[in-house]
Design goal:
- The complex is a heterodimer.
- Chain A is of the alpha/beta class.
- Chain A has 3 domains: 120 residues, no CATH class; 251 residues, 3-Layer(aba) Sandwich (Rossmann fold); 74 residues, no CATH class.
- Chain A contains 22 helices and 12 strands.
- In chain A, the strands form 3 sheets. Chain A has a 6-stranded parallel beta sheet with strand order 1-10-7-4-2-3, sandwiched between helices.
- In chain A, strand 5 and strand 6 form a beta hairpin.
- The longest helix of chain A is centred in the N-terminal third of the chain and has 22 residues.
- Chain A starts with 7 loop residues before the first helix and ends in a 5-residue tail after the last helix.
- In chain B, helix 5 packs antiparallel against helix 6, helix 7 crosses helix 9 and helix 11 packs across helix 12.
- Chain B is an alpha/beta fold.
- In chain B, helix 12 links the parallel strand 7 and strand 8.
- Chain B has 2 domains: 116 residues, Rossmann fold; 116 residues, Rossmann fold (3-Layer(aba) Sandwich), CATH 3.40.50.10700.
- The longest helix of chain B has 18 residues.
- Chain B starts with a strand and ends with a helix.
- The chains are: A alpha/beta, B alpha/beta.
- Chains A and B meet through helix 1, helix 15, helix 17, helix 18 and helix 19 of A and helix 1, helix 2, helix 3, helix 4 and helix 8 of B.
Chain lengths: 474, 241
């Protein structure tokens, strides 16, 4: 997927003034936040479960090579082939090779964010193979000229029902529908035909299970089940970090994943797929492949933001992020939006291509509080800020301002002198209402807010006088 | 009980009355308050900007100024949170310094937490004729566990009536330098907060961090709201609001 993260501010500006999007975002926030909170009350010990989930994910990452080898061995023993992709381009090449080997002319896909990283659909279509997205959200985006996803679990959440109705009416040439159920039925009618005629299915993978060589798919629409069982070939694509050691680990993680994501106790479908159809078995595909993707992940593992790889893609961090809630996912400019995206995007596409993302957070830590695997998201964002600062990637005036201010703050005498002058100057800028309406060098503040003027005397000078002359404090 | 008072750079520069209100409360609660004369800033702006070298230098300065005290108390969840939760992380590779930092961090408190849980104050001098709504500033809430303490103290203020607003725990959009770097997004978040404040119908919004106060007050006034007061919890408790 093309990276547009360097245009974060401009895109956010547009989104802030998009009335329809703003309406959709409020609806989304209310739904996600409320439902999650409600569903978590079902757990006797949320914090204990959360700590267990953190430990499971951390254990997988600590010995990732061992678990990957075990996964490869077990999956191979069950008749699947395990392939590794180093880069996004390699994902696409592996898929096209497999498609060629099996004479594939049409592919159906259930949701895979990793395939968004490599723009797989474009590569497949470029090779003359038809591809149909079957996740309802992804399908909506595909027929809307491959609009990018705005959320990792609800790719088309930025759209209202009315917008989707209009889109279906235009693209399907059908009578415009007026409710969600009718729209779903219409999509189902279109997609069913494709399930029956596709030669290959591609899915993502919520977890790769090392002890069994299985892929776990967590979905709500049933499309992943059809995608991975009806065609004769199935490819599951996911990142190397999606390994978990055991099925019991999956059970623990599943206590938190649907609840954190959509506020469901359990998702409508959970598929655990292990190898192709065996002799005498009725269900399943004839050929099963895993594409296990690195594409920057080992570099994250070796960095000081490695904890980000614990992510199980529930989306809670973005659902609860006040910044995301107001600008939506498209502003972030790549596959993964919100707080986790502001860490992963710079790591996967280059910090220099996403300079604003680590800064685009108030560090309020609502994301860190809701994360089911306890990723300290604000701390990791700060690590990336340190990298930007030490590599001189921030504008010079910003760096100079911080250094200059810190230079004074380390020298109390000078600081006291300069601040006494500073507050008097600022005070003189205030209007009769005690507000500064335009702050020199602070347009970022005063373009949308006033600045309450300082009192005009510093605490330190007033306190010193209070101590020596017994002046009453002010 | 010797209490080192960390006034914070924002209170020092912008609204010294908050500092004096806090002093009044601490002294009324029986603390022997010491105000290190050379104090400036905890280093958080440098920390959040990624300037680790300056952060370390300022952290050392703060530790040196306060380590003779039994407690460090600050009228800010954000600055006390910096000292309590982030200083130890900064010196993880420097064991001798880490020991000093941890000793200080353990005894670092946000003002209302200290008043409620250490001094256990029974009475507060403040009076307030009207309704107030409380905004839970992020660091106080999520780093320092400040939630019930200010409410319990405000309940002791004669005449004050608390009206909770919707989304009182949602960030106001300040975020330190974020408020300047991403002024438009920051203003929108502040605007949402102001809407909730106004919807509550309270006469005043009260909170424990001056950065957030400047943000909320600045946005309220720009929206044309000249009547809702924006007060620090110390001002209300001390009757200086």
């Amino acid at each position: 997927m093309q990276v547009a993260s360097m245009h974060f501010k401009e895109r956010a500006h547009v989104k802030l003034h998009d009335a329809r999007l703003q309406h959709n975002l409020v609806r989304m926030k209310d739904k996600f936040v409320g439902k999650r909170r409600e569903s978590l009350t079902e757990l006797d010990d949320f914090e204990g479960t959360r700590e267990a989930a953190r430990a499971i994910r951390q254990r997988a990452l600590d010995d990732l090579d061992v678990w990957l080898e075990l996964f490869e061995r077990n999956a191979t023993e069950r008749g699947a082939r395990v392939l590794f992709a180093q880069t996004p381009a390699e994902i696409n090449k592996l898929v096209l090779d497999i498609a060629a080997r099996h004479g594939v002319r049409k592919i159906i896909k259930s949701k895979s964010m990793v395939s968004e990283e490599s723009a797989l659909d474009h590569a497949v279509e470029g090779a003359g193979i038809a591809v149909v997205e079957t996740d309802l959200g992804e399908y909506i985006l595909q027929i809307n000229d491959y609009e990018p996803p705005s959320h990792i679990i609800g790719p088309a959440l930025h759209k209202s029902m009315e917008e989707v109705a209009e889109l279906f009416h235009q693209k399907h040439g059908t009578v415009k529908k007026v409710d969600i159920e009718e729209l779903c039925l219409e999509a189902r009618g279109v997609l069913r035909e494709h399930y029956l005629t596709a030669d290959m299915g591609i899915s993502g993978g919520n977890f790769f299970v090392a002890e069994t060589g299985s892929v776990v798919l967590v979905t709500n629409e049933g499309n992943a089940t059809l995608t991975t069982t009806l065609p004769k070939v199935h490819i599951a694509i996911s990142g190397i970090e999606k390994i978990v050691p055991t099925l019991e680990d999956v059970a623990t993680l599943m206590r938190l994943l649907p609840r954190s994501a959509t506020g469901q106790s359990i998702s409508n479908y959970v598929d655990i797929l292990t190898g192709p159809k065996g002799p005498g078995e009725f269900h399943g595909v004839e050929h099963m492949y895993f594409i296990v993707v690195d594409s920057g992940r080992t570099e994250v593992l070796a960095s000081d933001v490695k904890e980000a790889l614990r992510c199980i893609r529930c989306g809670a961090c973005m659902n609860h992020c006040p910044v995301y809630q107001n600008i939506g996912g498209h502003s972030y400019g790549w596959v993964y939006p919100g707080p986790i995206g502001s860490i992963l995007t710079p790591m996967y596409v280059g910090l220099e291509n996403a300079l604003d993302l680590p800064q685009a957070s108030t560090l309020c830590n609502q994301c860190g509080v809701v994360c089911p695997v306890k990723i300290p998201l604000p701390d990791l964002l700060r690590k990336l800020r340190e990298k930007e600062f030490s590599e001189d990637l921030r504008p010079w005036h910003e760096r100079t301002a911080v250094r200059l201010w810190a230079w004074f703050a380390r020298r109390p005498g000078l600081y006291g002198f300069a601040s006494r002058i500073g507050v008097r100057l600022l005070r003189s800028l205030a209007g009769p209402d005690g507000m500064i309406h335009k702050l020199p060098l602070g347009a970022g503040w005063t373009s949308g807010r006033d600045m309450p003027a300082p009192a005009g005397r510093t605490f330190r000078e007033l306190y010193a006088r209070h101590k020596t002359q017994g002046d009453p404090p002010k | 009980m010797r209490v080192g008072f960390f006034v914070t750079c924002l209170v020092d520069l912008m609204r010294p009355s908050i500092g004096f209100a806090a002093l009044k409360l601490l002294e009324a609660g029986g603390a022997d308050v010491y105000v290190p004369p050379g104090q400036t800033c905890c280093g958080q702006p440098a920390y959040n900007s990624g300037d680790r070298a300056d952060t370390l230098a300022l952290a050392r300065k703060v530790v040196g100024e306060f380590e003779g005290c039994d407690y460090l108390v600050s009228p800010s969840g954000s600055c006390s949170g910096m000292i309590k939760t982030h200083y130890p992380e900064l010196f993880a590779d420097d064991p001798p310094m880490l020991a000093r930092v941890q000793a200080l961090a353990t005894h670092t408190f946000e003002l209302t937490d200290f008043l409620a849980n250490v001094l256990k104050v029974e009475r507060v001098p403040g009076q307030f004729a009207g309704t107030i709504t409380y905004h839970d500033a992020c660091a106080g809430l999520r780093e320092m566990g400040v939630k019930q303490q200010p409410r319990a103290l405000l309940a002791k203020v004669q005449g004050a009536q608390l009206l909770e607003m919707a989304e009182c725990e949602t960030c106001c959009g300040f975020g330190g330098t974020f408020s300047i770097k991403f002024g438009e997004i920051s203003s929108r978040l502040a605007d949402n907060k102001c809407q909730h404040v106004e919807n509550s119908g309270a006469d005043a919004v009260v909170l424990g961090d001056l950065g957030c106060m400047l943000n909320i007050e600045g946005r309220l006034r720009r929206r044309g709201n000249t009547k809702t007061k924006v007060l620090h919890v110390a001002e209300v408790l001390a009757g200086e609001g």
